[in-house]
Fold this sequence. Notes:
Layout: E1 5-6, E2 8-14, E3 17-23, E4 28-30, H1 33-44, H2 49-58, H3 63-75, E5 79-80, E6 100-104, H4 136-148, E7 155-161, H5 169-185, E8 189-196, H6 203-211, E9 215-219, H7 224-230, H8 240-253, E10 259-265, H9 272-283, E11 287-292, H10 305-327, H11 335-346, E12 360-363, E13 368-370, E14 384-385, E15 389-390, H12 392-402, H13 416-419, H14 424-431, H15 442-462
Parallel strand pairs: 6-7, 6-12, 7-8, 8-9, 9-10, 10-11
Antiparallel strand pairs: 1-5, 2-3, 3-4, 12-13, 13-14, 14-15
Amino acid sequence: MSGYRLGEFHSFASADQEFLYLVPSGAIFALDEVSSSVIKHLSAAERTRESLVAELIAQGVARSEAEEAIDELYQSHAIANGNGFPTEVQKAPMPFPLQSLVLNVTNQCNLSCKYCYEFGEDRVATPEGKPKFMSEETAHAAVEFLLANSPGRRAIHLTFFGGETLMNFKVVQSTIEYARTRAHAEGKYIDFSLTTNATLLTPPVIEYLAEQHVGITISIDGPKELNDQLRVFSNGQGSYEMIAPRVKELLAKHKTRPIGARVTLTSQVVDVKAIYRHLKDELGFHEVGFAPVTTSPVRLYALGSNGLNTVLEQFTELAQEYLEFALRDEMHGFSNVKDTLQELHAGLSKAHPCGAGLGLLGVAPSGDIAPCHRFVDSDTHKLGNIATGIDRDVQSDFLERGHINRKPECHTCWARPVCSGGCYHEAYVRYGDTGHANLHYCDWIRGWTDVCLKVYGEIAVKNPKFLEHFDER
């Protein structure tokens, strides 16, 4: 028999406990004293089973205990005696049932945010000659498309997006009412969410969204001096003074769903902690999430390596706050750490970076189908139309190019189960290929994943009951 060797894992320690993050399964394995000894022996050199057992017995470990530890580590793939990284792309069964549909109800916006991926210098959309606003007929047809293409799904989700979503609020209302009626008739539960820049949040709109239990995300970049760097009107005027009172009214009156803030980080906007404090503690958002700007590296607002390092340092400090809250059985509002812990808890090992083009699709005002909302109105990335269906060959090509096994740079990276190469849209903007790994984020992703693993490990040791929150989603 060939010798045992170490499998693929990332080791870390929390609360005086050793753990392995197992690759590519995405599982977290707590080491006891015997299993830790096995790992240490194999770190020096390969061992046959008998020589490994003999060395453990020499340390005072019973044979049965030694063999049980070896078997457990082998079954979990922490140790191995065979093959390396697979090269074959395992295709998702087609047609894959839809879970979520993002309706870009308009490609128009009343702001002119300088970094906007839809209207800015790096846009991929080609909206010329296409409808600017989605009609009720198209939106309702999209609902039928979602219902017809979600076999086996008891619960489905519809998100309204833009441009500025509320510029087409009449269609949003009509579609919610239509979708709820049709979903009930089909024996499905449908959930709704919406993203807005908050400029059009009037009292009647807020009242309706609260009554309909619509989840809302507000795009905002922090206090006035940071938000108004890039989130401006076409005349260059900042948007904060207009949106702040509307956000406060929304948070005061919409209590049926948590309200989240979504912040775009740029070279001008990297003070993560100050932004978080303002949005969470001063304005009162339930959660705050941050995302680095999607852009080519030549833009003045692009985040360079120094900016990413600054972001990671501040993310780490907020993650430690999250940990302190979790150990007291309290919820913290930093959604980046919560979302990563959720994935780690579920043991996700992604073949693709996200559900785009698979369980999630975007729909343009014209009815054209895209892998996600970031690609709507892009002729290059069109997958079909809700009237004619999806071109399965085009969809399969998109998914195969984005599969982790097609990204050789990722094959030796221990963080690939949570990353799988990174965002398709970011890859296209940076490298001109949706299937390209986002190599400029690699060190950042590994650093952030390590932070979250240590937070997870400490919660698992000191307050494991808190992890049950991640089973409720």
